[in-house]
Write a structure and sequence with these properties.
three-stranded antiparallel β-sheet, mainly alpha, 11 helices, flat, single chain, two-stranded antiparallel ribbon, Herpes Virus-1
């Protein structure tokens, strides 16, 4: 098993490149955090697998007893997460074109620039809104499950959206050993309302830090979306 994990870690290792491979065009993507998908901010690296993340993005994973790398899912020692100084130096050295105005900006300053770039703001304002492919006169069903707010499975606190539920459980139930049903998963079409997670807090941090809507592409058909979500749910078991 140890040899297998070592091979998996080697296969998944994702160190930022030593130089701007492929020129400026993909430089921003090469130095983007795999969690927030933005240019690294105060990057840190996991010692065992070498994967790099923003310090703030990795922080929730460090709050559980047995953390797993968000990228390769291998366990790691939270005491062996160090500041990625080599990545910080590269962020200060390399420049990439802004995706809005095309001005070359140092990667370390890209986040600040994007928030103030008028071209980027214009692009965001002009993003197409989601509408049904075909107009329909069918009434909206009244028995649609509530997938917007949830109740805490530990204490019953109600009307928590997904992010509030994660925050509430981290702050109030970090040491609770009880096995509970995930209210988010059980509300989904593929969810099992009787399945109790052995480590609910870690499940929350790894599966529900971001909304499912963030990852679902509305251009794929409903069956493909269902199968992808089902695979995510089953991989936990």
């Amino acid at each position: 098993m140890a040899m297998f994990r070592s091979l998996v870690a080697s296969a998944h290792q994702r160190q930022p490149p030593a130089g701007p491979a492929g020129g400026d065009s993909g430089l921003e993507a090469q130095y983007s955090c795999p969690i927030c998908l933005e240019v690294y901010h105060r990057p840190v690296a996991i010692g065992s697998c070498g994967h790099t993340f923003c310090g703030e993005c990795l922080q929730p994973c460090l709050q559980v007893p047995s953390p797993l790398c968000p990228l390769c899912r291998l366990p790691f020692d939270p005491k062996k997460v160090d500041k990625a100084t080599h990545v910080e130096k590269q962020l200060s050295s390399y420049k990439a074109p802004c995706r809005g105005c095309n001005k070359k900006v140092t990667l370390a300053k890209m986040r600040v620039h994007v928030t103030s770039c008028l071209k980027v703001q214009e692009q965001m304002a002009n993003c197409p809104k989601f509408v049904p492919v075909v107009p329909t006169s069918q009434p909206i069903p009244s028995n649609i499950p509530n997938r917007s707010t949830f109740a805490c499975p530990y204490c019953g606190a109600r009307n928590l959206d997904q992010q509030e539920l994660v925050k509430h459980c981290v702050e109030s139930h970090r040491s609770d050993p009880n096995r509970v049903v995930c209210p988010i998963c059980s509300a989904m079409p593929w969810g099992d309302p009787s399945y109790k997670s052995a480590n609910f807090l870690q499940h929350l941090l790894h599966r529900h830090k971001f909304s499912y809507d963030t990852f679902v592409d509305y251009n794929i058909d409903e069956e493909a979306a269902f199968q992808a979500a089902l695979a995510l749910s089953l991989s936990e078991n």
